[in-house]
C-alpha cells in the first residue's frame, strides 16, 4: 500500500444555512480553505469525489451542480458516492492506491433543515414493509436504547454522562451548534423526548459541509510537517432488518476493528448520533479507558448529514497535525441504528499499514 | 507504482422490460448477480466487496436503497459502496469496482447496477423544482434536442442519419434476448415516419424506460488466471465538467475528449478506428452515435455521420457500434452504463451469442451522464495488456 495522509480539512457545521445558498456557494469557501492549507490550486488535485444525498436535497442529482464549485474548464477526474464524506474519502484513497493519482480533494454537503430529517431518513427503510409504517430515526434509536437498557448494558445515567461530556467538550468547538455542559443530574431531570431518549441524547438537526485533502508520500510531506497518515481503513455493512438484528451490537464495527490495529490509539472521534450509540461503539471497539472520546463534542453537538462521518476524520487529523496526538481513530456510520460503519486509523508515522478492506 | 491487472470474469444481466412486475428491486438485482456469479464460477461467500450503482434515488422512491438491499445483494458482513454519477453511473460503478482490484485491496469484487423505473415516475423525479435554477421540464429529449440540432448544423449531416442509427440498433436488439425492445421490421423509413417529439428527435429515435440490472465480477490477475475466458481491463477513465459555463461545447464536450485521450493513452491505442474491434457507446438518442464517434476520436470532427451512413457502425461494419441494441433498445438508466461495459466484455470473451462481432478482441465500453458532462469509459481485451 502507498503511504497516504490527510493534509487538509475544512468544515462548516451550522444550525441552518444563512438564507438558502446553493451547494456551489457553500463549497467554494471550503475549497479555498483547502487551497490555503496546501498551497495548491485546483490543478494540483488529481481526483475529486463527493458525498451527498438526493433525498436530503429533495431533488435528483444533488451532486451535479456541486461540480460547478470546482470550476469549469478543464474537466476533472471525478466521482460521487451517495454516502457520507468518509466513504468518498475511501474511494479517493483507493484511487490513490491504484497509482493513477497522488492527490485528492473530497467533499460532502447537506441541508438537513430543509425538511423533517427524522421523517426523510425513514425512507431509507425497507420500502415494501417498513417505510409504509414510517418509523422515524429517533424512534428507532429509542428502541435501540431501550434494548440496551433492558439487557442491562447501559442505563439512562450512562447515556447522560456521554451527553454531558460531549456538551462540555463542545465549548471549545467553534462549529458546534449545541454546547455547554451542566451536570449529569441536571440532564437527567430534563423531560423525555422519545423514551428513553432526551433531546440531548439525540444529535441536533444540522446543516453543513466539509472537505478533506489527501496526498501520497512526499506530496503529503510537502504540505505538512506532521501529515496525518491513514494507516488503516476498513468498512462493512450489516443487514437492515430491525427486527432480526441485535440492536445492542454492531457486528460491522467489530469486523472493521478486527482488520485494524487499535493499540496505542489516544483519541477516538466516533460518529454516534445518539448517546447510547457511543456506548455500543466503545464496546465493539474495546477502547481503553484512557482514550479521549470525541474531544470535538462529536455528533451529539452537531451532525451535518453526509459530512459528519468525514468530519470525524478531519478532527483526528487536526490533532495529529498539531502534534497533540500520535495515533487516533475515526469512525463514520450510515443507515439506521449503526447499520454501516467505517473505521480509519490515523498516525503521525506512515509505518505499520494495516488491513484495508 | 502501476495498477495491478484486473479482469471481468463474470457478466450477468436481466431481461429488460418496461415493468418487471415479477420481481422486487432485490429480485431484479439478484437476477443479474446470480447470472454473473454463475458465469464466474463463484458464490457470494467468495466475494470480497460489493459496489452498487444506480441513478437518482427518486427513480424508485427509496433513499439509499443499498441499505435495505444489503442482505439480498449478499453484502451483509462485507464492505459495500454506493456510486451515483448520473447517467454515467453504471460505467463509474464498474470503474470503482475495478479500482478496488487494481489497487490490490480486494481480489474478487462484485458490482451491480440497476434501475427499476416502474417503481416510481422518472419524469416526476427529474422535475422537482430547485431554487435558483431555471426550470426546463422538457425531459431529457428536450434538453438534448438543441445539442443534436447544433451537431447537424455544424457537421452538415443529412437529416436521416439518426434514423439509420435507430434502425440499426433496433435490428441488432432482435439478436439480443435480454433487450427490452424487440421491434420487428424497424427501418430507416419507419423511423422517419414516427412522430416528431423534440425536433429533430423522433419517437423511434429515443430510448425506452426500462426495469433492469447488470452485474459484473471483477477479479485480480491470479483469480482471472484460473478463469477460462477473462476480459482484461486495458484502461478506465472518468472525467467531469461543470454544468454552467458559456464556453462549454455541449456537442463535443471537453470532458469527453479529455477522457477519450486519456483512455486511449492508457490502453496503448494510437488509432482507435483501427485498433478497437467494436464499441458499446451510450446512445440514448440516435444522433448521439455520430456525435460520440467524433468526440471519441473514431472519426475526425464533422465526419462521424459519414461512418454511420456508410454502414461502418453496423454489425458487419468497420466499427460495429451497439451490437446489443444499445441504450436505444434497453434503458434501465442506472444499469445502462454497466450494460455497455459488460457487453464490451462479453464481446471480447466471444460470448455475445447472436450479436457477437466476429473476431472482437478489443472493445470500448462508454457511458455519459448529466448534461453531457460526466463520462466513464473502459477498454477491455481478450489478451492481457502489454503496457
Number of domains of chain A: 2
If helices are DSSP runs of H or I spanning 4 or more residues, what is the number of helices of chain B?
A: 14
Strand count, sense and closure of the main sheet of chain B?
9 strands, mixed
Number of strands of chain A: 13
CATH architecture of the largest domain in chain A: 3-Layer(aba) Sandwich
Which pair of chains forms the biggest interface, and how many residues does each contribute? A-B, 69 and 72 residues
Q: What is the C-level CATH assignment of the largest domain in chain A?
A: Alpha Beta
Any idea what the shape of chain A is?
globular
Largest sheet of chain A: 11 strands, mixed
Give the termini distance of chain B in whole angstroms: 13 Å
Oligomer type: heterodimer
Q: Look at the structure and name the CATH superfamily of the largest domain in chain A.
A: Thiolase/Chalcone synthase
Low-confidence stretches of chain B: none
Strand % of chain A is: 15-25%
Task: State the distance separating the first and last CA atoms of chain A.
Answer: 12 Å
* β-strand amount of chain B: 15-25%
SSE blueprint:
The complex is a heterodimer of chains A (357) and B (387).
Chain A: E1 4-14, H1 23-38, E2 47-51, H2 54-57, E3 78-81, H3 85-97, E4 103-111, H4 117-120, H5 137-150, H6 156-169, H7 184-188, E5 192-194, E6 197-198, E7 205-216, H8 217-223, E8 228-237, H9 251-258, E9 267-269, H10 275-285, E10 292-293, E11 303-304, H11 308-321, E12 327-334, E13 340-347
Parallel strand pairs in A: 2-3, 2-4, 7-11, 9-10, 9-12
Antiparallel strand pairs in A: 1-7, 1-8, 4-7, 5-6, 8-13, 12-13
Helix pairs in contact in A: 3-11, 6-10
Chain B: E1 6-13, H1 25-40, E2 49-53, H2 66-69, E3 80-83, H3 89-102, E4 108-116, H4 122-125, H5 139-155, H6 161-173, H7 188-192, E5 196-198, E6 201-202, E7 211-220, H8 221-225, E8 231-240, H9 254-266, H10 272-275, E9 278-280, H11 288-295, H12 304-309, H13 326-329, H14 333-348, E10 362-369, E11 374-381
Parallel strand pairs in B: 2-3, 2-4, 9-10
Antiparallel strand pairs in B: 1-7, 1-8, 4-7, 5-6, 8-11, 10-11
Helix pairs in contact in B: 3-14
